[in-house]
Amino acid sequence: MPKEPPAGYPRISPYLNYEDTGAMMEWLKQVFGFVPRHIQTDRDGAVVHAEMTFHDGVVMMGSPGGSFQNPRHLGQSTQSLYVYVGDVDLHYEKAKAAGAEILEEPDDQEYGDRRYGVVDPEGHRWYFAARLET
User: Fold this and answer.
1) 18, 40, 58, 71: which is deepest, by most CB within 10 A?
2) In the structure, what pLDDT confidence band is assigned to residue 32 with cuts at 50, 70 and 90?
3) CA dihedral for 18, 20, 101, 28, sign (positive or negative)
4) Rounded to an integer, what distance in angstroms lies between the CA atom of residue 106 and that of residue 27?
5) For the segment 99-124, what is each residue's pLDDT rounded down to a tens digit?
6) Which residues lie closer than 8 Å to 78 by C-beta, 6 or more apart?
7) β 125-131/113-119 pair status
8) pLDDT at residue 133 in the model
9) What are the extents of the domains in the chain?
10) Residues sharing a CB contact under 8 Å with residue 112, sequence separation 6 or more, in sequence order
11) Cβ(120)–Cβ(130) below 8 Å
């Protein structure tokens, strides 16, 4: 019989495919502050599935192999993620200092967020934001 997801598992989680999931996990940890929660490896020790948390959010990721191409190799964006942080300007400065490819500088949006955009090394687009005081 189906059950509710366990505590700490959101009902919807993005799943990102990476060519080198292990390397991307380290990058997401160092640059964005994500925390590894689960890692599954193959016989050779390569990460084939992983889960990382950021506050109450979870991002799942894996290496599909075969004919998969990440957004960087495709030459186009395939999706983007939107993540709320406490201090978007501090988060931006840390990402920029780490050499992240910045898409957009922090800017106030008409819908009430202050946001910046960045691309990870495999071409996935991330937007980090904080709500403006209203």
Assistant:
1) 18
2) very high
3) positive
4) 21
5) 999 999 999 999 999 999 999 999 99
6) 71, 124
7) antiparallel
8) 80
9) 10-64, 77-134
10) 131, 132, 134
11) no
What CATH number was assigned to the domain covering residues 77-134? 3.30.720.110
Q: Are 127 and 87 in contact (CB under 8 A)?
A: no
Better-scored residue on pLDDT, 44 or 6: 44
Tokens linked to 66: 């075969």
Distances (CA, A) of 50 to 37, 71, 94, 128, 132: 8, 19, 24, 21, 33
Pick the CATH number of 10-64 from 3.30.720.120, 3.40.50.720, 1.10.630.10, 3.40.630.10: 3.30.720.120
Q: Which amino acid is at 87?
A: D
For the stretch 6-15, pLDDT in tens is 776 777 889 9
